[in-house]
Structure formats: structure tokens, C-alpha cells
């Protein structure tokens, strides 16, 4: 099976054409209720379909949060498969937020599940956890290269608890988050226009000028909206790496549904605020 064009190149083009906003598809039980839907598989299916139909032609990336689909078992996973298929067919890229991470031999199976081109859950990129050691991600890196997919490695997460692990200082004086960024910079070296191996770096983290965020790869930035960060915070957080930032908004957009026009208006507002923030650099 022939590989896709590398994820980094496809993402760069999509960000240039549509702007960098990533909308999360996070069907929280509370959102299903607010949308007048039942907290069941039919509600899940309707919610996801509505988001994809409303936004697939204007956002660069969707990020379905696998947990909210897995909670319904195999029928929820079937909805996730269809959501990914529909979003990709409509021209958006899909980052599967499943945060997988395990010993290398098991990681190979996760890679087959999400990154092998003919897998039912194939996604353009997958979030992965490097906390069994960056080297444990090798099978996913290999499979991503083979398929033309990408990865987003948890480096500096948006939640306040993340620092306990990610700010821990190693024997060489560098902290764990910075070490993950350095691994990714090596992975992406020489790639043009953008490498396919990105980092997750929270938009909530304030000034990150002590980190080298210039990894020649995308920076997925959750935390805008419900977690309190705003598009205006992005220049301070990301500095010179700003052009490679993919800000994610989930609840901040989704709370405006189920009306498709209101979802679009909210996504457009975030997109405009992000454009304005990018223009300040
Ligand atoms: O550091 C991280 C990594 C992932 N996430 C995920 O992003 C969305 C954020 O949702 P909001 O509703 O916009 O807060 C969610 O799926 C998280 O699991 C993150 O928040 N932080």
C-alpha cells in the first residue's frame, strides 16, 4: 500500500490554507445532555456527525478524544471509526487523541491499530505518551514513517499535575519535557516543510522561553477555551515557534452546539483570534 505524503507536509498545507485551529471532538456526557441528546451510542453518533458536518470544510484538524468513544465499548469505537472516516473524507486531518504508550512490542500493536494505513482506526496522527521511555515509541515512529502519518508526543502537558513528571530534572541537568523536545528535534531534522513528529505543549503554561520549542515539527497546544488559555496567550507561550502551533479547542467550541451555525461561528471566532495572535509575531 503506497504511503501518504508525510503528515508534516500535509499539515503545513492545511494550516496555510485553513489556519491552524484544531477542534476537538470530545463528546462529554454533560455536552450530550446540553445538546438535548441521550448519553448513549445514538447521542454519541449524532454529536460527532454534527461536529464533522458543521466544521470539516473550515478547520485544518479534528482531534477526536478516544476516551469519550471507548466509554461505550465496541459500539462507541465503531462511531469513532466512522467519525474519523467522515472527517478525512471531507478533507480535514484527524489527530487521534488516544495517548498510547507501552513497552515496544505492545507499542507496535498500538501503531498497527492507529497508524497502519489499512486499519479501521487509521488516523493522520496519534498522540503518544513517552513515559515508558522515548525509545519505546520506536515502533510507532517506524509505522508512521511507513504510512505517511505523524505522532504528537506528550512533552509539556496543559494540566497542572504534569510538571511533577515533565519538570523533573535528569542527571544531565535537562528536564524530562525538554528531553522529549530534543528527541523530536532530532527526529524531524532536515524535513521540509515541516517534520511529522510533533509535541503536545499546553497553551496554559505561560512563558516557555527556557525551552527550545523549535523542533521543526508541529506543536499541538491544548488548553485554549475551557482550561483558561486564550489565543492572545499563544505568542508569550510559544515565541518563535508560533508558526508551527496547532491550538486545540474542544469544549470552548462544542458548548455552542448543536446548532451548526453557532458551532461554525464559534470556530470562526477562535480562528480569527488565533490569526490576530499570529500576526503579532
Ligand atoms: O496536555 C494535554 C493533552 C491533551 N489534552 C486533551 O485536549 C482536549 C482539551 O479539551 P478542552 O475541552 O478544550 O479543555 C481534551 O481532549 C484533553 O484530553 C489536554 O487537554 N491537555
From TrEMBL:
Please list the GO terms describing molecular function.
orotidine-5'-phosphate decarboxylase activity
Q: Which UniProt keywords apply?
A: Decarboxylase, Lyase, Pyrimidine biosynthesis
Does the keyword Transcription regulation feature in the UniProt annotation? no
Kindly indicate whether the keyword Lyase belongs to this entry: yes
Q: Which residues form the active site?
A: 99
SMART domains documented for this protein: OMPdecase
Which Pfam families does this entry report, sorted A to Z? OMPdecase (PF00215)
Superkingdom, taxonomy of origin: Bacteria
EC class, as a word, reads lyase
Ranges for domain Orotidine 5'-phosphate decarboxylase come to 20-266
Stated family: Belongs to the OMP decarboxylase family. Type 2 subfamily.
Identify this protein by name: Orotidine 5'-phosphate decarboxylase
Record organism: Streptomyces pseudovenezuelae
Lineage of origin = Bacteria, Bacillati, Actinomycetota, Actinomycetes, Kitasatosporales
Q: Which gene encodes it?
A: pyrF
Amino acid at each position: 500500500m503506497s504511503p501518504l505524503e508525510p503528515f508534516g507536509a500535509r499539515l503545513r498545507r492545511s494550516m496555510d490554507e485553513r489556519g491552524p485551529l484544531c477542534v476537538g471532538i470530545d463528546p462529554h456526557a454533560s455536552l450530550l445532555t446540553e445538546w438535548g441528546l441521550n448519553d448513549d451510542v445514538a447521542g454519541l453518533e449524532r454529536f460527532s456527525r454534527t461536529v464533522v458536518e458543521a466544521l470539516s470544510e473550515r478547520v485544518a484538524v479534528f482531534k477526536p478524544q478516544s476516551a469519550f468513544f471507548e466509554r461505550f465499548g465496541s459500539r462507541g469505537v465503531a462511531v469513532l471509526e466512522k467519525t474519523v472516516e467522515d472527517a478525512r473524507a471531507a478533507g480535514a486531518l484527524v489527530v487521534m487523541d488516544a495517548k498510547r504508550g507501552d513497552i515496544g512490542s505492545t507499542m507496535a500493536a498500538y501503531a498497527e491499530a492507529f497508524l497502519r494505513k489499512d486499519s479501521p482506526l487509521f488516523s493522520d496522527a496519534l498522540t503518544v505518551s513517552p513515559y515508558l521511555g522515548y525509545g519505546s515509541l520506536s515502533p510507532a515512529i517506524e509505522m508512521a514513517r511507513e504510512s505517511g502519518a505523524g505522532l504528537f508526543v506528550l512533552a509539556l502537558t496543559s494540566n497542572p499535575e504534569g510538571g511533577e513528571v515533565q519538570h523533573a530534572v535528569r542527571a544531565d541537568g535537562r528536564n524530562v519535557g525538554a528531553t522529549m523536545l530534543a528527541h523530536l528535534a532530532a527526529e524531524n531534522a532536515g524535513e521540509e516543510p515541516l517534520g511529522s513528529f510533533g509535541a503536545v505543549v499546553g497553551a496554559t503554561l505561560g512563558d516557555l522561553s527556557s525551552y527550545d520549542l523549535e523542533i521543526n515539527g508541529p506543536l499541538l497546544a491544548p488548553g485554549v477555551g475551557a482550561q483558561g488559555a486564550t489565543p492572545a496567550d499563544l505568542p508569550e507561550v510559544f515565541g518563535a515557534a508560533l508558526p508551527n502551533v496547532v491550538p486545540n479547542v474542544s469544549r470552548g467550541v462544542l458548548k455552542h452546539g448543536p446548532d451548526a451555525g453557532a458551532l461554525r461561528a464559534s470556530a470562526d471566532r477562535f480562528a480569527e483570534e488565533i490569526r490576530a495572535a499570529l500576526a503579532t509575531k
